[in-house]
Records
---
Amino acid sequence: MASGGGNNRNGTHRNSLKGTTTTSTASTDKPLSVNSNPSKPAFKNKSSPLTGASSGLRKSSPGSLGGGAAKDDAGVPGRVRVAVRLRPRNAEESVADADFADCVELQPELKRLKLRKNNWDTDTYEFDEVLTEFASQKRVYEVVAKPVVEGVLDGYNGTIMAYGQTGTGKTYTLGRLGEEDTANRGIMVRAMEDILAEVSPEIDYVLVSYLQLYMESLQDLLDPTNDNISIVEEPKSGDVSLPGATLVEIRDQQSFLELLRLGEAHRHAANTKLNTESSRSHALLMVHVKRTVKGREAAHSSDNGNSTSMARSLRPPLVRKGKLVVVDLAGSERIDKSGSDGHTREEAKSINLSLSALGKCINALAENSAHVPVRDSKLTRLLRDSFGGTARTSLVITVGPSPRHRGETASTIMFGQRAMKVENMLKLKEEFDYKSLARRLDIQLDKLIMEHERKQKAFEVEIERITAEAQNRISEAERNYADAVEKERLKYQKDYMESIKKLEEKWMMNQQNQGDERKMVHIAEEVAEVKKLLSKETSLRKAAEEEVDNLKSQLAQLKMSEASANSEILKLRKMVEDEVCQKEKLEGEISMLQSQLLHLSFEADETRKRLDRGGPGKVPGGLDSPVSQVRSQLKDSGNGEKASVAKLFEQVGLQKILSLLEAEDADVRIHAVKVVANLAAEETNQQKIVEAGGLKSLLMLLGSSEDETIHRVAAGAIANLAMNEKNQELIMSQGGISLLSTTASHAKDPQTLRMVAGAIANLCGNDKLQTKLRGEGGIKALLEIVKCGHPDVLAQVARGIANFAKCESRASTQGSKTGRSLLIEDGALPWIVQNANSDASPIRRHTELALCHLAQHEVNAKDMISEGALWELVRISQDCPREDIRTLAHRTLASSPDFIAGLKRLRIDY
Ligand code: ADP
Ligand code: MG
């Protein structure tokens, strides 16, 4: 319930007919001023009379989809809708009231209810919907609850509430489970059926809590031990939450019915223990629905033809969160205050408290009163969004027909009439789901890694298989060759032995038959035969040699095929290497995505904050040093972002982030340099960044990039790193001064000059680097920068000069420096004198300090007197708000002979 003067309401209320109510039966025939109410046609809807603003609301939804969550702040007006339901006569009434007419008469087609005052007089009232004793549960649901449930599914909060005397059918309307006959199902059961049919179980969720409010104590009906739940209101959004209440996720209708049964059993047990009835307590069912908006990506990419797939996958899903509250109120009849009900007076007061507070709030809202007493009871605190808030609210008031309860019936009707005047401002609850985007990117990364590993494994197996096959073939060929050679060798050996044996036998025989001429002839024959045998042997041997050659050529062929197998292996190896390259590229892309995601969430967060602060026109102002600005930006982005920077740091690795500084795509380079600058603002990261070569890359960017944003952010990061002595030496040795002064000479944005001057100012504070810094033109660069005239820039220059003068003074005191100040040598004195009395206090403070340091050393005195510094020193010694500087100036003037002479000459009485 919105408190105060009703800024959400436009003051055009629908008037009840009570104002024009006729007081006699006769005058009811006069036409009632049904159309006197201008807002009525706008709310009227053919299919469901209680949908009211829903048609307007639906039209506004697509607009808000395209424009994002932040633009939908205005809301849509939506009046509280009220239906009246009449219970049929029950058995007791049929007997007891048999001779009497009902005290109410309904005219559903005119949406009117007539309340009999006496035999000749009735009052007439008009409602958004009039439900007779014959109205089915299905019709009641469709008319009262369905539009509210649809709103919840679209991301709006919704309330359905029943009000009326005990026994008139509140629980019948809201809470019936319809186990014996499904036609009897009440609003809770039907609402959950509609919700479950619309949500997708994989990406959406439905969470339910069920509570009872009795005597201002809130009890958990799903966990009876939890009987004192506290209500937490978020001051900014006005959202109400119950952190102590049990939340059960509902995935199907059956588990919801079991939950309702369990809640009912606990309610019964609790009421028995407290010795009361459920009619004395309020029951609240809360259903939280989160849905991911579908089709949004498709709509966007067709809007913008050149959006890349990378940008698409970076877009976080949009979620809508609606909360449905169903309230079965305690009976509206007054409790006997005498205590005859078994209660003391105090208890009776406490029991009545929430309901009467609700009545008071509705009266205040209906009358547009300046104060709405929302905080008077727990019920009104719980329902602050339902009346005068951002929820769509539907109220059903239940009445009985009996003339004996005319008084209670009349007061119920009046409650309904006043509630009809309450105007809500419906608001879409929509936000980006960054967590699920990050989860999606993680899953994508895991998939790519798995795919790569799978391919690599397959290649390795293939290589092993080919190698083994080649090895097998080679050893088989070698075996065959050895077998064949061995076989041939054995065959020859055998043949040879046999031939020798035969020759020996023949020779023996020849010996024996020597001298026998007859036998000579025979021998000649024998010899011829032997010759024949020999030639046969020779040809056999030739054949064997051919066989050997053949085998040799086969072996050579096998060797060749082995070589080709080897080249195949080499090719596969190359493919594996290509895969590895591809994987590295993908990883680079992923880290870039993550850096962009980080940047996007920074920007989203900043935009949100800027909106919170009151619009984009505001610029964060006047910080003393760029370091503190970067720091504060990082601080602003909150712990969540810090954690995500650290997480990104871990996941992506510094090396990869730094490598993105040299990316081809200018946008990526800008994102990367911003991420590095954010990291460099944290002292803990600085060492790591320098060790990984980040400082070198940042300096290189100053030289190589043309983009001023890069120059500004890189110079800011260098200024941060330049706070450390070791890094100062590194920056100097890598040509930092000349890079920074070139950057300054091209800069158009004073913020760039401020970062550059800040970096040089830090370097000026290093005792060891004085001569080198001056030699490379550091002081001249600062004097060039002052031409821009911006006070923030001048403050940094003054800080640098003061740092330099302080180090120089220290060196002169220690004797390691002689001669005039290098600042005077480089012509800085006129500027210092000119700004020593600047209106901007940081500039004045630093220049005053610089003058005091310079004045410490007699060698500088003549120049200082001739440049007019003496006047300034006198002024400082008298007016400077800092006592130490005042004293220093005074002491210096009093002790330097040159200054004393100068004062005398100028006739300054000191
Ligand atoms: P309440 O919750 O307002 O105290 P109940 O819902 O418990 O009232 O209803 C009281 C009795 O009236 C119950 O027995 C219920 O079944 C009956 N009843 C209520 N409304 C109707 C109706 N529209 N049709 C039939 N019976 C009804
Ligand atoms: Mg009841």
---
Amino acid sequence: MPTQTLPLTISMHPSDNVAIVANDGGLPVGTVLSSGLVLKDKVPQGHKVALVDLAADAPVLRYGIPIGYALKDIPAGSWVHERLLHMPDARELDNLPIATVKSAVQAPLEGYTFEGYRNADGSVGTRNILAITQTVQCVAGVTDFAVQRIKAELLPKFPNVDDVVALEHTYGCGVAIDAPGAEIPIRTLRNISLNPNFGGEVMLVSLGCEKLQPERLFPPNTIEIKTASDTRGTGSAGPLGVPPLQGGETRSGTGGLVCLQDDAHVGFMSMVESIMRQATTHLQRLNARRRETVPASELVVGVQCGGSDAFSGVTANPAVGYCTDLLVRAGASVMFSETTEVRDGIDQLTSRASTPEVAEAMIREMAWYDAYLQRGKVDRSANTTPGNKKGGLSNIVEKAMGSIVKSGSSAITGVLAPGEKLKQKGLTYTATPASDFICGTLQLAAGMNLHVFTTGRGTPYGLAECPVIKVATRSDLARRWHDLMDINAGTIADGSKTIEDVGWEMFHLMLEVASGRKKTWAEHWKLHNALVLFNPAPVT
Ligand code: CA
């Protein structure tokens, strides 16, 4: 049953000449809007209605910017769908406004804390997970077999450890490992292994003959990987080509390696036992971790959207943006990403950069991505999906305007290239593809300890490595997916809550989830998507 009886439309900016229909099920032809305008077409929920007569070639304005140009005359009251619009070209990357907006300095938000796991390198985890890194896909089956046994036989003995997760991926061999771009998947895998939720314990399973050798994945200055206690159980452990630490040098942790082709392995079960033995040493240390009260500034939040609709940019993403500002005020780290979904708003981003260097770094990342897409003879418009369009998003320009609001209004103080590790607080543009899995994987590599994901069409997305708070853009979705969605931002369109209300609700839920007091629905059902490494280099 529709919840709203009165026709409800939402426009985002005073200059907009279209508005979207908010009512569940849309509005029928002949509906009289509160302005007196009569609908000339049936307009589905989330889709646009022309508020005035639009002449052919006239700009169609949403968020106060042209999201397209009318292909023919469109009378007021008509349904404005993607087949009636010509999409503008992407803005060029020169002559952009650089650091022109001085964001109002907002009062620090003090006194908010959560219960987290403090690590030796200063980072803080929100979960206590044994992650098993793999150099190559070849070992995935054996590792998975061992993980099932670890969960059944070992995990019950270590009650403070939340989970055991194999960091499975398809990289590691059959790849041009020295080609430009290959550094991205390699550093991504390295940095994921060092995610704060894994407590600095790096356990590595390798095959032996693969291109991505353990020393290449973890060069000496990153982490000390020791070979597994000898597979015959004599306990001899030797460093793997790792020089001793020099004065002042630090490493992010220590690790252990199991190599399946090791001569000592006779039969499949001896490999499984090696993995289980190595896991035990890590589980013992992880089990000693305890939560302690830490300031909210230790949150490292990655924001993302997927399965977007026209409400994403009206309800959920603005609420995330409000929450982003709260987090920045609390001294936390927030990452926004999804290059093809912010490309059309590059001028907004460069103007919000805190320094010219930050703006230049953003332009560099966007230019790199433009060239990457060009090699495949596409551009950022390849982003939108059939579901986006069904949900009312006509094109990537409209989608980008709704996506970018997740970044809130704070100054952008940092930029990360794909796979790099975050080293600063505040708001950072973390350059990633918009692909849900690749974006989530790269944000994990950056050090994300909490993920916020908005969806309008609906996706059961989750990650095994980090809690994912999912936000529905519409009340209809939140009702139907009541045991998958953690927050309903559709209440903003219904008029029962404000963007600020939902932003604060999100902030408080983050502290509860980060503390382990609450589980997200994805955690409850153990819904996990694959890690997907971004490999722009050729395979062989
Ligand atoms: Ca996405």
